[in-house]
């Protein structure tokens, strides 16, 4: 089983524990976690970090585009 190390900023944590913008902070926190998990999964599937050429590389990827997490969105 893969172990994930998720990196959070002080801003994410501060927003969660203060009353101001708690919903927005939680959404940003989830967005950060999901993006990091997806990046780790793509590295495992491809067999290399982005832009790295290795003998173990099993595939290629076309890249990605930045998108914001939208709660309740079906896409």
TrEMBL record:
GO term, biological process aspect, one: DNA transposition
Region (Disordered): 48-75
Keywords: DNA recombination, DNA-binding, Transposition
Example of a GO MF term: transposase activity
InterPro entries hit by this protein: Transposase_mutator
Domain of life: Bacteria
Keyword Cytoplasm on entry: no
Family statement: Belongs to the transposase mutator family.
Function: Required for the transposition of the insertion element.
Record protein name field: Transposase
The species this protein was found in: Proteiniclasticum sediminis
